[in-house]
Amino acid sequence: MSSEQSESNIEGKTPEILEDEAKYGVKIDPVLMKKAIGARPPPPSPSACCGQGCVNCVLDMYDKRLERWEERKHRYLELLKAQQQQQQQQQESEQKEGKEPRE
């Protein structure tokens, strides 16, 4: 395991978060993301579905909840990406002007 991977695991980043960081080109704080979009909905237990084709099947309801969560996550990560790009541009601009970069 590389030091970067172990460092990420220490920060509490799951493989999914590491994948999202690479996909969106952002640094993700898992705690802030969970506060912003909520926890990923847990799947129903295998025995939750009766298999009788109910109109409001628990599996269908789970799929809808998961889809809404994925949409929130996507919007959050797009906003985070824009924010981080803006901060980087501001830091680069300040460095060109000889100012101390903001933290």
Q: What topology emerges from the helices and strands here?
A:
Layout: H1 3-10, H2 15-24, H3 30-37, H4 58-97
Structure notes:
With 103 residues, the protein is mainly alpha-helical. The chain has one domain. It has 4 helices and no strands. The chain has helices spanning 3-10, 15-24, 30-37, 58-97. The longest helix is centred in the last third of the chain and has 40 residues, at 58-97. The model is unreliable at 1-8 (pLDDT under 50).
Shape: elongated
Beta fraction:
under 5%
- H/E topology pattern: HHHH
What structural class do helix, strand and pairing data support? mainly alpha
Summarize model confidence as the mean pLDDT: 87
Radius of gyration: 19 Å
Biggest sheet statistics: none
Count of alpha/pi helices? 4
Q: Considering DSSP H and I runs of 4 or more, what fraction of the residues is helical? A: 55-70%
Low-confidence stretches at least 5 residues in length (pLDDT < 50)? 1-8
> How far is the N terminus from the C terminus?
30 Å
Number of strands: 0
Counted up, domains total: 1
Brief overview:
The chain is mostly helical and 103 residues long. The protein has helices at residues 3-10, 15-24, 30-37, 58-97.
Key terms:
elongated; 0% strand; 103 residues; mainly alpha; 64% helix
